[in-house]
């Protein structure tokens, strides 16, 4: 499974993000989702209050079939705005043709990480 990951989290004036590709099994993905949500759950209240990426879905998408796996970070979902422009995804290209992620930072600037695989590419 070709995975593109982007975790973009703002702690005060600091933004941390990771963008890259790795090959993971479904069980490994589930463990990553659980670990990420657990780390957020155990964060100090002051840290959670400053966080701008709250309640986002960590999801996996197929190039042909669209989203087929989504898992919310339930611990923070209650403090998330439904129309928030901030997104954080793990995206899987089941068809081995493309994987792409995009997010918007707090300043309103768009950031994008596109992983090309095969002859196709796309942005989300």
What does this structure look like?
This is BgtE-20108. It comes from Blumeria graminis f. sp. tritici. The chain has 124 residues and is of the alpha+beta class. The chain has one domain. Helix content is 21%, strand content 42%. The protein has three helices and seven strands, in the order ββααββαβββ. The chain has helices at residues 26-41, 45-50, 74-77, and strands spanning 2-11, 14-23, 57-62, 66-72, 89-93, 98-104, 110-116. The strands form three sheets. It has a three-stranded antiparallel beta sheet with strand order 2-1-5. The chain has a two-stranded antiparallel ribbon with strand order 3-4. A two-stranded antiparallel sheet has the order 6-7. The longest helix is centred in the first third of the chain and has 16 residues, at 26-41. The chain is globular, with a radius of gyration of 14 Å. The protein starts with a strand and ends in an 8-residue tail after the last strand.
């Amino acid at each position: 499974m070709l995975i593109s990951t982007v975790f973009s989290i703002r702690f005060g004036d600091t933004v941390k993000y990771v963008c890259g590709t790795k090959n993971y099994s479904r069980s490994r993905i589930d463990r990553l989702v659980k670990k990420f949500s657990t780390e957020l759950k155990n964060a100090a209240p002051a840290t959670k209050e400053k966080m701008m990426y709250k309640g986002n879905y960590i999801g996996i998408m197929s190039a042909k079939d669209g989203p087929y796996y989504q898992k919310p970070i339930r611990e923070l979902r209650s403090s998330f705005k439904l129309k928030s422009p901030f997104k954080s995804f793990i995206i899987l290209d089941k068809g081995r043709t493309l994987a792409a992620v995009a997010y918007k930072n707090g300043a309103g600037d768009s950031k994008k990480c596109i992983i090309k695989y095969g002859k196709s590419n796309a942005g989300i």
